[in-house]
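lol so apparently i was supposed to do this last week
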Amino acid sequence: MSVSDTVPPLLSHYSLRGHNTFGLEAFARWFCRIESPEQFAAVLRDPRVTGLPHLVLGGGSNVVLTRDFEGVAMLVCLAGKRLVREDDQAWYVEAAAGENWHEFVAWTLAQGLPGLENLALIPGTVGAAPVQNIGAYGLEMAERFASLRVVELATGETRELDAAQCRFGYRDSFFKREGRGRFAITSVTFRLPKAWAPRAEYADVARALQASGAQASPQAIFDAVVAVRRAKLPDPAQLGNAGSFFKNPVVDAQMFEALHAREPQIVSYRQADGRFKLAAGWLIDRCGWKGRAIGAAAVHERQALVLVNRGGATGAQVLALAQAIQEDVRARFGVCLEAEPVVI
Ligand code: EPU
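anyway here it is w/ EPU bound
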């Protein structure tokens, strides 16, 4: 046995409050920090935790903890990032799952490796990025993805998965469906095309770029995205939240026409398949939810898609608020809103 596959210290009755960006209080029966891929399987073989449920935690930016977790929470602390190879067309950059996403994006730019700048300031870790295929301001992670490495928790076997195997969709992947709870992502490799072109069509970003007067360089787009996010989205370090709480729903053309006739202002994006994606934030806003609260769980004042913890909110309050919003939007528009974060 080497040091890398020894069981890390297992802490009991451990508060997860500092490990979820909502800042919800919940205790894990057992908690440990994973510092090598081999440690996942080593922990799960430990007699204190065998048979108990397990939870792989990155930055905790996409979970809602509704009660204590009667199992073992494994915090991914795998570190390291490097340019692994390049060819005529692209650079391939690998980062360990525990690396902070935003710092990783900033580092790629500092190395002269552009391509991820539209995804600046998204909270969370590199390992969490593929789970929900993070996306913002005209770019989804899947477009810059090459492959990832996982550990299968039941067997301790490692595997490499390509994009097709990860089955990326809008805020979706294999890891939220068939693969849920079965794997821990240990590293991700990104493919950054050498032929760089700005993605600056998104209105907010275009406006911020213009205001800065800068040419559309990778760094200028990074700065514009940071400015837009800071203006619109609450910083989880100051006000607990998990980003967008709902996915933008997609409806068929017939349903869209009916809605549009009633609500000419409705914000929508036509999809390649002829359906329409609706801005959930607009629907929620239109129902008058901005700034409303249940207990200390509230709808953000500037972006109705984001639920926030005003201080001391419980997971139950967050869920009650989410449910009330879902029922209202369904009653008013006949549209179902699907929650984006994983509810534990
Ligand atoms: N809107 C309102 N009222 C609101 C919120 C939004 O009227 O309270 C309107 C806006 O005016 C705009 C439209 O709805 O016309 C869309 O709003 P926005 O551009 O802010 O984007 P979004 O659709 O609400 C999505 C992502 C965000 C991402 C932005 C930018 C989802 C679920 N959310 O939000 O992702 O940053 O686009 O690309 O797709 C996240 O996933 O955590 C996240 C923040």
